[in-house]
Amino acid sequence: MSETSTTSQPAAVPQPTSTPPQAGSVSVGERARRVLHRVFAIEEIGPLLALIGLVVLIGAFHSAFLDKDVLLNTVRSAAFVAITAYGMVYLLAMTEIDLSVGGIYALSIMLAAQWMSSINPWLAAVLAIVVAVGLGAANGVLANVFRIPVIIITLGTLSMYRGLVQVVSDGKPATGIPLDSSFFTKLGENTLGIPTSAWVVVILGIVLTFVFKKTRFGAMVRATGSNHQAAEFSGIPTRRIRLYALMLTGGLAGLAGVLSLAYFQGADPTVGAGYELQVIAAAIIGGTAVSGGTGTVPGALIGALIVAVINSGLIFFSIDSNWTNFVTGAVIVVAVGSDALVRRRRAARALRGT
Q1: What region, left, alpha or beta, does residue 262 occupy, with left being phi > 0 and alpha being psi -120 to 50 degrees?
Q2: In the chain, which residue ranges form alpha helices assigned H by DSSP?
Q3: Is residue 345 in some structural domain?
Q4: Is 176 helix (H, G, I), strand (E, B) or coil?
Q5: How many CA atoms within 13 Å lie on the side-chain side of 180?
Q6: Residue 38 domain-assigned?
Q7: 79 domain residue, yes or no
Q8: 230: which residues sit within 8 A by CB, 6+ positions away?
Q9: Which domain holds residue 336?
Q10: pTM for the full predicted model
């Protein structure tokens, strides 16, 4: 009988294994960094922090600035600028600027006020807005026919529309306005403790943000601003899109005008002086680049609030109102310069990354 020899195998020694970190086990510091990165990636975070800083700064020196009535009045004055600034965002995203919005705003107020003495105030307001849309369309038609930038056409139409205000009013304030109409009691006062114009601004902001970010029209606006020639080559009707954007801006200026009339309950031929500067400032300060291709509707609202807070702050610090336009222009310069620096830094980082 043959003997079978068996070779015993050495027992496997368990090797220390490193357990991979679970997907959910992220350090607190890393989570905080991710949250901060997401927060500071928001387009409007810079203007929002600037707005908060201004409010805190002015309130620290003048506590009365933080009173409810003062803040509500600041919000109301910002609303009249923000409504038109929404339209300016669309134009800036196309590398265009409409200088005539101040004239359209003033003419809408004067026409509505004069028509209200003979027809229903609500109908008069609607007709004034329709006229404003037509004035915006006139800007677009002229720019397309002559094939020149909107800023050049509107430099002329600004004077034309302001001249019409003088002609229509005969240089006198409007009279015979039915101030007891529901138009003034509903649109010129507060709703749920907030100025009605502020509610209009919020609703418009939501709608126009959706249009700008999620619709085909908004995509064509951004594409036109990113590369005009490429947009035309790809079949985008750039001139028609520019016309629609100008009609939108004109209509928004008209809406801002009738809302201003509802609150101020009067119309003067000099109304709206410097309005176009505030509108452009609000859009640019809010983060919409003049280089085109992008824009932020909520940022325009924040920019309008910054302009309103600055104007209110000048009053609280007893600074001559003649400095208002100077300060607004200086803020525009700072905003444009900062945007240019940020874009250059991003381009430099991208170049180093490649």
Answers
A1: alpha
A2: 28-40, 45-61, 68-93, 101-115, 121-146, 150-169, 182-187, 196-214, 216-226, 228-233, 238-264, 275-285, 297-316, 324-353
A3: yes
A4: coil
A5: 0
A6: no
A7: yes
A8: 223
A9: 45-353
A10: 0.86
* pLDDT by 10s per residue, the chain, length 354: 444 444 444 555 555 555 555 545 567 777 666 665 565 556 778 889 989 999 999 999 999 999 999 999 999 999 999 999 999 999 999 999 999 999 999 999 999 999 998 999 999 999 999 999 999 999 999 999 999 999 999 999 999 999 999 999 988 998 889 999 999 999 998 999 899 999 999 999 999 999 999 999 999 999 999 998 899 999 999 999 999 999 999 999 999 999 999 999 999 888 888 899 999 999 999 989 888 888 999 999 999 999 999 989 989 988 887 787 788 788 878 877 777 777 677 667 777 765
CA 67 to chain centre: 26
Domain count for the chain: 1
Phi-psi domain of 172 (left: phi exceeds 0; alpha: psi -120 through 50; beta: other): beta
Place of tokens 């830094």: 345
Does any domain span residue 70?
yes
Residues 256 and 280: their CA atoms lie apart, in Å, by 15
Question: What CATH number is associated with residue 224?
Answer: 1.10.3470
